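Q: What residues go here?
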């Protein structure tokens, strides 16, 4: 090996289509959840709805989302949506923005810039050359510069002042990502935030279109499906890990919200992935995709 050459290894930074992220179910983006890595989504086709850290917004072509690790979000593009997803390790050294962003890019030149940056990143990943990860991080740094320039052009240098209700919903969403596994009720979350359950639910409905209890339910449901469908973890342990008082209550919860029991969900996933196993395709999705 040449001096200073880096052994070839898979990059921590991954780029794929949104369709591939959804290949094992639309719920992987459409249900409220957070991730342990940063995520960039570049929507190039379709329209739908998103919730980003407690704010509901419409989504269309040429919308770019930056979603830092630990940000509660969902994105439903329907069946016609298309775009690119970039998984980025949460690393302050990459100088990415520390808050979620939605950028609606109308200028063709700016759209082409981001598409070009993503193409360069994809080619680097495909080439699999020495120092690939270092080069991929450099490309992500350039994407970060692009995002910050666009945010400055669209919104100016000053952070917008948020209404009190939106600040409350954002604080609740941040708390949910940290505490949803504890089994706390919505009323207990409201008490932690110093407000009544009614006030919290009213604010959540105003800014997200769903109640505070719905937000908590959706986050728990996502984790349940993720563990049921992508791991071999015993169902009893899953119910305990997500804060359910009993396996029976957990089973009823999953059945109520998916129409299938935890056992049936796991069995269906095994059947659907069996053909790929026989052809040698990669089966196991990224743990947080």
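A:
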């Amino acid at each position: 090996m040449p001096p200073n050459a880096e052994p070839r290894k898979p990059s921590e930074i991954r780029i794929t289509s949104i369709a591939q992220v959804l290949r094992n179910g639309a719920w992987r983006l459409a249900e409220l959840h957070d991730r342990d890595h940063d995520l960039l989504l570049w929507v190039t086709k379709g329209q739908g709805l998103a919730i980003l850290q407690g704010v509901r917004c419409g989504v269309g072509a040429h919308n770019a989302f930056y979603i830092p690790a630990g940000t509660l979000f969902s994105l439903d593009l329907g069946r016609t949506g298309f775009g690119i997803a970039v998984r980025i390790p949460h690393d302050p050294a990459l100088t990415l923005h520390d808050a979620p962003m939605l950028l609606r890019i109308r200028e063709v030149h700016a759209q082409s810039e981001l598409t070009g940056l993503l193409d360069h990143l994809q080619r680097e990943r495909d080439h699999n050359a020495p120092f690939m990860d270092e080069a991929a991080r450099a490309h992500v740094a350039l994407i970060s510069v692009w995002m910050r320039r666009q945010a400055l052009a669209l919104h100016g240098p000053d952070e917008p002042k948020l209404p009190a209700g939106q600040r409350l919903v954002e604080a609740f969403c941040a708390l949910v990502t940290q505490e949803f596994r504890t089994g706390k009720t919505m009323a207990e979350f409201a008490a932690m935030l110093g407000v009544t359950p009614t006030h919290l639910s009213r604010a959540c409905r105003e800014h997200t279109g769903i109640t505070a209890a719905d937000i908590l339910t959706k986050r728990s449901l996502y984790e349940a499906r993720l563990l049921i469908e992508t791991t071999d973890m015993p169902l009893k342990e899953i119910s305990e890990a997500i804060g359910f008082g009993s396996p029976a209550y957990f089973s009823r919860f999953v059945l109520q919200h998916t129409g299938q029991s935890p056992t049936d969900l796991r069995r269906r996933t095994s059947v659907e992935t069996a053909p790929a196993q026989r052809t040698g395709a990669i089966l196991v999705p990224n743990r947080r995709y």
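A: Context that may help when evaluating the design: Residues 132-155 form the longest helix (24 residues). Strands lie at 14-17, 38-45, 48-52, 55-59, 63-67, 73-76, 82-88, 101-104.
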